[in-house]
Amino acid sequence: MTKRNIEKLLTRCITDNKENIYRLAYSYVKNKEDALDIVQESIYKALTSIGLLKNPESVKSWLFRIVVNTSLDFLRKHKRVQLVDEEALEFYSSGVEDVYPDIDLERTLEELPLKYRNVIVLRYFEDLKIEEVAEILNENVNTVKTRLYQALQLLRVTLMEESSKEMN
């Protein structure tokens, strides 16, 4: 496959998955502007390193890996400081009742170690196959399966503990 054809394949992949790419970046940084910056930087990295793509059939997982790594680099550089965006600030300051039924799940996910959160986000929020998750995270398929199982166990235990506290 020629470099030009691979570039077209990458461009189509970016276009077809733009919402997923943004959502993936946002799941790490929790800020619109930072997520957009990560998406932009990831696309730039993908376009400038297109020659490193060994298998054109795996362009999607290659691109997602770039987004994950760029997100993790961003978090490292900014020491995981999470700024609250304007909408969230307005929402919390307005005294409005919480309308998110899954807020416990979101909070519990945030508390998970990164290696577990990564597999949950990619598998369930991005709806990727375990093999794709393994490729994106550059891990063995069995490692991903084990982490997924452990992450679900941790989530289950934590959510059950929280619900039992609420009942008392």
TrEMBL record:
Signal peptide start and end residues: none
GO BP term, example: DNA-templated transcription initiation
Protein name stated in the entry: RNA polymerase subunit sigma-70
Domain RNA polymerase sigma factor 70 region 4 type, residue spans: 104-155
Family: Belongs to the sigma-70 factor family. ECF subfamily.
Domain called RNA polymerase sigma-70 region: residue spans: 14-80
One example GO MF annotation: sigma factor activity
Matching InterPro entries: RNA_pol_sigma-70-like, RNA_pol_sigma-70_dom, RNA_pol_sigma70_r2, RNA_pol_sigma70_r4_t2, RNA_pol_sigma_r2, RNA_pol_sigma_r3/r4-like, WH-like_DNA-bd_sf
Transcription is among the record's keywords: yes
Keywords associated with the record: Sigma factor, Transcription, Transcription regulation
NCBIfam families for the chain: sigma70-ECF
